[in-house]
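Q: Sequence in, structure out?
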Amino acid sequence: MKGYGQQQDNTPLKWTHINQIMRDKKIAILAVQETHMDEERRESIGSIFGRRLHITASADKDSPSQRAGIAIVFNKSFVNTSSEKTQVIHEGRAILSSIEWGGKKTLTILAVYAPNTASENTAFWQEIRQFFADHPRVRKPDIMLGDFNMVEDAIDRNPSHNDGGPQTQELAGLKADLHLRDGWRHLNPDSRAFTFSQPLSNGGARSRIDRIYVTDQLLERSSDWETNHSGLANTDHKLVSARVTNAAAPQQGKGRWSLPERVIVDKAFRERVKNLTKLAWEEICTMKNGPRTELNNAQKIYMDYKSKLRDEARRRDKIMTPKILRDIEALKKDLLATEGSQDESQDLTSRLIEEKIAVLEKRRHNKIRDLGKVRNRLEGETNSRYWMQTNKDLKPRDVIFALKDPNLPDGATKTSSKKMAELAMRYHNDLQSNGRERDEIERELVIRRESKPKQTSNTTARWRKQSAQQR
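A: Exactly. Output:
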């Protein structure tokens, strides 16, 4: 973070950006270093952003608001923070947090901000190793992440060189003790990607000092190991991220596709919808004059109409994708071809591409922020869905991890979403048919008989006629 940052109207500006980054990028857990945040500042941030963010932190012992400092930030939209427990291993440098992960699983995270100097860096890893040796009952971390201020391999520095032996040996010992490994390096054994870059005026050194280590079990259930610009201003570090999956979580698909809001309000799309609707209605009116067939009926026309709407929405969505996103994706492809090259000209090209991406990401971040301010100005004090959403407490969705199958012995469970849906459907159908002993044919005849309109008796008709005449 490079410090706590300035305040505006008693609001820390950097933390407003962190709140936005976690919301827009859907980050569940974020480790932040160099926070310069004492307990008073942590409570102040909690009072402002407590609806979305839950922060556990540790400040430097000697200069809590001037140097070091580390925090783990939980997004309440995705994480149940009621069970969060944190231990401080080294004030301002290392904290260990545990949360309930669902399905009777616990996730433990070790966030670190290692010192710069080689001797202090070595002593830092020794201290963490000693902590776990002295506290054997403390749950070892599933994830270790943060700013390590050193690399294990020469490939992770440009210009390439190895860091000192003692610090790499101590980190290797800690990894062995905790059974952790570098997930990105495991998946990209020969690639180079840098998370920290110095300006050329300061030497231009680049390195991959920000890393995420995970257990073998989590590594098998991880994906999307990425290094991207966060959009946060005044930082020389990139955002390192990965997606990990709970082993107890049910199998889930990609979800149901829905029309993006920006497409729904698009004038060109709405005009196209009007034309498609008019054509479909004309086809239905024409069909009424002829015989109904399997290929010529209202249901078939309606199905084709919805398919055309979906295809048109997807086509329009691609066209409406902001130009800035297309430019960023194009630059990232160019960066893959040049990043990590030992050639000086290629290295300079990759630096220029990195700078362009950083500028575009910041511009995109600020544009989203400005749009949010405008919407809040227009709808923030109105009785609208936006106002209700902004004032509603955030909490993660309740996930059903398993359902018992009554047809299986010993209370065996199903964890597949599809199988659980079938169990729920079967249970519902059994409730509907429970106690229904009537023959299905007889039941259908009764329904048809009862659903026919009843004819009015002659007596009632005469009474109505007389009443009308009297009026």
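Residues 458 and 470 are 18 Å apart (CA to CA).
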